[in-house]
Amino acid sequence: MKATLEDRMFSEHGYFKMTINCDGWINVQGHHLMNIMVVNRYGEMFMTAIDASNKVKMAVWQAKHLVVEIRRLGPTNVLQFVADNASVNVKTRKLIHEEFPHIQWGGCATHGLDLLYKDIGKLKWVKDLFKLCAEKVKYIKNHHMMNTMFLDDFSDDLTLLKPRMTRFMTNFIMID
Q1: pTM of the entire structure?
Q2: Residue 101 has what pLDDT?
Q3: Which residue of 37, 45, 64, 161 has the fewest CB atoms within a 10 Å radius of its CB?
Q4: Taking residues 158-168, what's their average pLDDT?
């Protein structure tokens, strides 16, 4: 019988050196949510999402919820806490460290890369290239015949992506 991911992650043998990941996002209704996930050598698993709308002392609130999850997992089983370097997460890390000094902090590599691409995207020649590519994508997407020709020739391998202002990496993917 196959063991589920949860069985493997929380078995006696897999219940050590876990990383708690925390990320905030906004759902389609505009609610601010905080996701808490746990990762170990067996994989990653979603633990909970908590509505963070209208929270005034965000770091204290966030730390309180993370402490609940750390206790649920067992503090000695949690090795580190990973989140982006937003100021609220830096404060949260300090609050968690006060209660659990053995838990390390790790910055989110993906967030760091996104910030790097954002800075690269500010270079004039890159901005100009993004603008030119975005105009071409918009033209093809907005003209039925051009879009049909593109889909006939490339649809098996490629798709046209419109640029997005919130995640700058999509602009680099667009020009690829």
Answers
A1: 0.65
A2: 95
A3: 64
A4: 65
